[in-house]
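**User:** I keep going back and forth on a fold encoding question. It is easy to fool oneself when nobody else works the same problem. Could you pick a protein and write out its sequence and tokenised fold? Could you put it straight underneath, so I can go through it closely?

**Assistant:**
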Amino acid sequence: MASDSVVVIPTYNEKDNIERMIRTVFSFDKAFDILIIDDASPDGTAQIIRSLMLEFPGRLHLEERQGKQGLGTAYIHGFNWSLKKDYEYIFEMDADFSHNPEDLIRLYEACKNGKGDFSIGSRYCKGGKVKNWPINRILMSYFASIYVRMVLWISIKDTTAGFKCYKREVLETIHFNNIRFKGYAFQICMKYAAVKHGFRPAEVPITFIDRQFGESKMSIGIFKEAFWGVWKMKKMNL
């Protein structure tokens, strides 16, 4: 049965997580397809995915890019691919289980049932939690969201969240190909653009758990891009 939903997952060196993530998503009663954007992972991530495509034909898809090009460009690639394939609901999710795949269903229902035009897996709305992060990382993330809300005047509690579901009409409206940010700034900019176009966000509380396997892609450069990028967003054609 064809699915109305696709989960876009960017990967770089996720061989320890990717097979378990794929099998978990495909185990749900609700059918999700998966599109993985792999940036030439040297650890063999793409080979694992290709072997699983034989087991899940038509449901598991892989787009391979040459070299590490950043999260934002991976999602833009995935959005363009997904819109061409006529999916109604397009998701963003990390490969490392910091986003619990079981929450995909709650994000889907929030959009499907009309609570929002796009839904956000939120650490900072009522009921949201963070586990296994050092306190300085939690505080940096929490106050970063406050900073973004103050600069951009949006009411979203978790402005840097990367676990989301969009109705296709949202992505059809946003000029996301104009967004050049690569890290958290990309996530912020997409939410800001959606709100600017009049789309309604729905924050769904999740428990965010720091990765167990593989290495975090967080860097000081990503943080700086987000800190200064929010001022640039106010002048962009979104």
